[in-house]
Amino acid sequence: MAGMVPGGVPPSDEQAVLQFKEFLSNYNKLTEHCFKDCVHDFTTRKIHDSENSCSTNCMEKYMKVTARISQRFQEYHFMQNEAQGIPQAPQPQQPAQSGWFGR
Hints:
Elements: H1 11-38, H2 49-83
């Protein structure tokens, strides 16, 4: 087909495919990390409460930290562009957060 990149993906969908690949890569890394940290007993098929709790906490912490880093990254770029005089759309207000990276 004309206009298709190698692999059969139309150019209009190429960015979405790259984003999905990045998502899957991050998901796999997170899963492996939390599994290695939390699952230690392979003598039974049952997941222990402590393993389940550890896995849940690990994933929640990762998601919160990732969201906070992303927010800070956006704020940094907003300030950099503002300093260079590049016009931008207003940033949406985020609720104040407490914890590791709270204000």
